[in-house]
Specification:
Blueprint: E1 5-10, E2 13-18, H1 21-36, H2 56-62, E3 71-73, E4 76-82, E5 88-94, H3 96-113, H4 119-137, H5 143-161, H6 172-181
């Protein structure tokens, strides 16, 4: 290759960074040929070549475009951002697809268990689910996404626990008191994958 490259892989998902676009085009072509020898192929909806990095925004604007493209990897959207003093920052946030899927799953679970007698057991599992979400998505730079997930989960819990019977179980004041007594795990970053928390 003409320049440097780096492969980041998890199972069969991967991202390859290239210094030069021509190297990216060459490797993509050869990779398709290589995989075809084993009756395999790349997922077309996940495969693309984009310009990304510290010069992407400047180059995109010079060509008359808008913001640089983003890419999703393992449920995380990566985008070109900037620090407060204007330096390049690799920004991350939970992808829209992953957020929608996680919220839908949480909502369906709360709906199913709302009529169970043991509310403390429901709360115990809910805390475990939130902790699991933070363990996966709590990477450096993604605090805002997991904070929003926490807030929306709390709203859904209030909604469904209020539908446990014909009679309302909670008003917001009583629910707030319950959460104060039995707090849900707060959003927390777990891994410093990138340079900033």
């Amino acid at each position: 290759m003409k320049g440097q490259s780096q492969l980041i892989r998890y199972a069969d998902d991967f991202v390859i960074g290239f210094e030069y676009k021509e190297d990216a085009i060459k490797v993509l072509s050869e990779l398709k040929e290589r995989l075809a020898q084993f009756n395999l192929k790349l997922a077309e909806d996940k495969t693309k070549i984009i310009e990304f990095g510290r010069f992407a925004e400047e180059n995109t604007k010079r060509r008359g475009g808008g913001k640089p493209e983003t890419f999703d990897f393992l449920g995380i959207t990566h985008y070109c951002g900037a620090t407060r003093d204007g330096r390049f920052k690799l920004g991350v946030k939970t992808s829209k697809k992953s957020t929608k899927k996680s919220l839908k799953s949480m909502n369906e679970w709360l709906r199913k268990v709302r009529n169970l007698d043991k509310q403390k057991e429901i709360w115990k599992i809910l805390k475990s689910k939130l902790t699991g979400h933070y363990q996966y998505y709590g990477i450096s730079g993604n605090f805002e996404s997991i904070k929003q997930f926490h807030c929306k989960t709390r709203q859904m819990a209030y909604k469904w626990l209020n539908r446990r019977s014909q009679k309302k179980s909670f008003n917001w004041e009583r629910f707030s008191q319950y959460i104060e007594r039995y707090p849900l795990p707060k959003p927390e970053l777990k891994f410093q994958i990138y340079n900033t928390w």
